Amino acid sequence: xxxxxxxxxxxxxxxxxxxxxxxxxxxxxxxxxxxxxxxxxxxxxxxxxxxxxxxxxxxxxxxxxxxxxxxxxxxxxxxxxxxxxxxxxxxxxxxxxxxxxxxxxxxxxxxxxxxxxxxxxxxxxxxxxxxxxxxxxxxxxxxxxxxxxxxxxxxxxxxxxxxxxxxxxxxxxxxxxxxxxxxxxxxxxxxxxxxxxxxxxxx
Length: 203
Ligand code: MN
Description:
Elements: E1 3-7, H1 11-16, E2 26-30, E3 35-36, E4 51-53, E5 55-61, E6 77-85, E7 87-88, H2 89-98, H3 103-106, E8 112-114, E9 118-119, H4 122-127, E10 130-135, E11 138-144, H5 152-159, E12 170-172, E13 180-181, E14 187-192, E15 195-201
Residues 5, 7, 54, 56, 85, 174-175 line the site of manganese (II) ion.
């Protein structure tokens, strides 16, 4: 199982961090040990003082494939959820400035929160998926897959030209604007529509 993540896939988020809009999807990965499931808490890591949430729509790959044509990509996922791409923003900024890989800022233990998966219906495939993140009861991020720079089907096709997609792989499709820091004691809740799919306490 691999966790593939897409960076800068919403215009307003790329702009809020002062990044250019990419011409091709920006891809990175997290190791399986980054997964945090079952509503477990995240213990604030001691190597950062700027732990940020990025709420993202996540798809689960249900079929093996390589060089997947975009027009068949919809066959490769039937379930979606929301998750958090936790980021040690201070470390990431230092690494970015040096042009270094940013794995330690993005792939640390517990950095990939995943909610319960739900079946995607035809209506959502056509009209898009709306998701949100609440921090201590207040909505801090609102996402809509209609606003993706690179669509889910395009991402599947593009990613599969480099990495064989395998059953059980996850793709974090990028975060909308509104990312921000968390503190010990915060509670995060991720939703698709009105359905709560995960909660995560920061300890
Ligand atoms: Mn992200």
